[in-house]
Specification:
single chain; alpha+beta; about 35% helix; Translation Initiation Factor IF3
Length: about 110
């Protein structure tokens, strides 16, 4: 089940992803089981994954991102342009420490 991120946490993860290159490319073959397995393994190691969809991908990228997030039990952080960012914290040793929710209703 994907976790709910506050806007502050989402912005924090976006800023981290902005400084990294795309780890994977989604091509015309779409989201293959091999690609899903590789993304899952990378999330296990890094917690944050950035994907690029080539122009040959005709599906809606938000739908593609949500599908990958569901298959990898991760959270879709953002879809911007042809980039997709996913996050899944390590349950034992989180590497990325998210900002704490402030408790404001406007923060979500």
């Amino acid at each position: 089940m994907a976790m709910q991120l506050t806007s502050k946490q989402r912005a924090f993860l976006r800023s981290l992803a902005q400084n990294t290159g795309a780890t994977f490319q989604i091509g015309k073959e779409g989201v293959t089981p091999e690609l899903t397995a590789a993304i899952d393994e990378t999330l296990r190691k890094n917690e944050l994954v950035k994907l690029t969809a080539l122009r040959t991908v005709e599906e809606d990228l938000r739908t593609v991102g949500e599908m990958i997030a569901g298959r990898t039990r991760s959270t879709l952080v953002e879809v911007i342009g042809r980039k997709i960012v996913l996050y899944r914290p390590d349950p034992d040793e989180p590497k990325i420490i998210l900002p704490k929710p402030s408790g404001n209703k406007t923060d979500a």
